[in-house]
Amino acid sequence: MAIETIRESAAEPASAGQQDGLASEAWILLQRIAFSERPAFVAAAREFDLMPVHVIALRSLEPPIPMGELARLLACDNSNVTGIIDRLEERGLVERRAAKHDRRVKLVALTPEGKRLKEGVEVRMAEPPRPIEELSREDLRALREILRRAARHLDQR
Length: 157
Hints:
mainly alpha; disordered N terminus; 3-stranded antiparallel β-sheet; 157 residues; 8% strand; globular; Arc Repressor Mutant, subunit A
């Protein structure tokens, strides 16, 4: 479905086929807004002398997770995660720990410095983009509640 074909739909109940179309339209719009902010995301990462993948990794490490799980979250090979974690470890932001249940499994955990930097990144990343900021308070409340409901499914995975 092309962005140009997205249009407002009537406030009538959606059939299963229409529901799929509505979900696709909503997802395309969310992507369009998020992707439009990629330059700001890259700039925010650079402010902290990080690459975007390092920011994503830091934001994924509470609680500590196995290297293999981090590779899955970053959609990359385990060997790539090793390089990412090496860089963060060199800066004193993360540490590798043996898992208690299996010492062969390496967990990646934030150090106190890593937690401080992660908090700074999150403050910076919480600055809303203009298309969101310019919505009315009523629309922002509705959007927040809708996204909270959608995000609950992330925790159930």
